[in-house]
Amino acid sequence: MVTQMTKLVLVLGAALVLIACEGEQTDPKARWTDTAAPASAPVVMRWYNPGQVEAGAALYAQHCASCHKSNAEGTPDWKTRDANGKLPPPPLNGTAHAWHHPLDVLRTVVKRGGAPVGGSMPAFDEKLAPQEIDAILAWVQSHWSDKIYAIWHERDLAASGGLQATRK
Question: Mind spelling out the 3-state secondary structure of 43-97?
Fold first, then answer.
């Protein structure tokens, strides 16, 4: 025979299960607030200015476009090693992995080249000044959607311990 106390425990337990299964919400406060997704990606101020993008366009055309293509679309099979075992030039337009890396890593890859990471990109540390490298990276990032840039920005901040590196 089931007592009233047992019934109460079963009813309360069932209610707790139903509440817990209400939905996959990671933030308990979200249950009480509007959970609609934003209509567009958050607007994040980009670290570069239009002058850097303009200068970067010319520098990119001169130093990078022959391999990474004129619109930064890269090689279609960029994940497949070539006959020499090297990785071909990836897209830089936000469709590959460049946006996964903090700005300091991107700068280092341009300076040291792609050989240390399995690619064939030459080092540019003796060909380009730091501000020229930044201009090229500004032009590249200007091709990234706001959504991709916002994700990159958060990763860049996390990599720098929450402090933005000096952007020139």
Answer: CCCCCCCHHHHHHHHHHHHHHCHHHHCCCCCCCCCCCCCCCCCCECCCCCCCCCC
Please, are residues 86 and 137 in contact by the beta-carbon 8 Å criterion? Answer: no
Enter the tokens of residue 159. 């990599």
- Closest to 72 in 3D by CA, of 136, 149, 150: 136
Cα–Cα separations (whole angstroms), residue 135 to 34, 43, 54: 41, 21, 8
Mean pLDDT of 87-103: 94
Q: What is the pLDDT of residues 14-72, one digit of tens each?
A: 443 333 344 444 443 333 334 444 456 567 899 999 999 999 999 999 999 999 999 99
**Structural domains of the chain ordered from first start:** 50-159 (1.10.760.10)
